[in-house]
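User: I'll paste a sequence; please echo it back and then give the predicted structure.

Assistant: Echoing your sequence first, then the prediction.
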Amino acid sequence: MERREAMNSKKRRSGFHVMAGLIGMITPLLGYMCIAIIMGCIGNLMATFITILGGYGFLGIFGAKEGVNISLIFTLLIIFAVFRGILRYAEQACNHFIAFKLLASIRHKVFAALRRLAPAKLDGSEKGNLISIITSDIELLEVFYAHTISPIAIAVITSVFMVCFLGNLHVAYGVLGCVFYVIVGVIIPLVNGKNGGEKGQEYRNSFGGLNACVLDNLYGLEEILEYNQQNIRMESLKKHTVLLGEMTGALKKDENVQRVITDGVILFTGIVMAIIGEILVNAGMVNGADALIAVIAMTSSFGPTAALSALSNNLHHTLASGNRVLDILEEIPVVEDVVDGVESLSGDILCENVSFTYNDTEHKTKVNVLKNFSATFAENKIHGILGKSGCGKSTLLKLLMRFYETDMGTVFYGKDNVNRIDTSALRNHISYVTQETFLFTDTIANNIRVAKSDATKEEIIEAAKKASIHDFIMSTPNGYDTMLAELGNSISGGEKQRIGIARAFLHDSNMIFLDEPTSNIDSLNEGMILRSLEQEKRDKTIILVSHRKSTMGIADNVVAM
């Protein structure tokens, strides 16, 4: 486990490695990307040559250059202007098609990764930060796929073409063009990216922290109002907002500096080209017309490379977001699913010298929860686990479910090590009721049916009766077809808990694990649920975790922790 945690530590990838990881996802849409690049190159060259042709036309009108066909130039200007717009639209359409297809694919991959990483990932992470990754971070990748990859390729190809064009006028122009294209399109973005990369990562992390703070305030709104904590919570929210504002300001300052430098380099390039042109003309190496065309061509061709330079400002956010997404996709699960393992569960459950330690990432410490715990839970019996809060009762159930692996010791189901049992089979043979029951925004019937997707209405009703929730359901406006509000906020905590227990009965597995199943339930309903559990023990192994001694009355065996 320590090896995996070390491998899962946040990676400080370079911008190149992040881009390489994101580009690797384009493979299925490579054809569309090639079309976008080709149309972008042609369109940008047409835009550049509109200015160059204008220069040739100007020279032809004033007789500074012989053999210039003004009619042809005028016709080409119209054609280039029209097709520049059409090609630009088609290029952007292809790029955005690629971007939105890939964003959907990345979301699927992220959710698949979270399914693979859960529940350990959800136990240890800030939910607000995960929401930020799933929503805003992935959304920001649209900038990369729609406005980064093809512009880079377009800038490289058009720059090579223009270097050849300038070199055809004179080799000095080609060399100067190559130098200044590299400065604007490579050096400035790299320097800017190096200076702003850390800030971009900090910004995304702070944005995730702000989301977590907002989520906390929304979930805890009743408590905030009850204990008059509005000012304190607002102050906390203000600190996150101010910090985010300061980071935004710093990034904007870097962006403005970069723009000034880029514009300054382009202006300087024009001056240098004019000076070199004058020297070459005086030396008789080029004529005045070609010198003028060289200046016009150089200054008008910076569009793709200047866009590439400006792109580095957005890349601070984009690459930081990409890094966070890649962290999720490349993270190794704390517990790997077992495939093609043992599929049958039978016999006693045996814990031999089980030890487990949580890593407290916030305080960078280890919390010893279980140490050398041993117990035997006989088959087809009710077993109670009694102990105070924090003694490891819930953790033990998670180890039995193999949500985590033991640091030391072994869990056996019969003679089979839990680490050799097929994960799907393990979950199918166990009904696990947690302390917090999550309810979907759906009907009550469908919320119970989560435990068995093909369950009939009769089976759902029978499970609800065993969980002592049937009478309440029938008292609702539409009975089992009553819609529940978001997070189940339309019903009480006890009713949520009983729906969770109904799921366990509906699942009809040969083992039932219950973590404080009656903590929010009155004594009458508790008695009815416990009586149902006692009836189930004929062919089921039941482990009941509670801090209530009264709940242990039905247990055949009680383990004190």
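The radius of gyration is 34 Å. Residues 208 and 449 are 34 Å apart (CA to CA).
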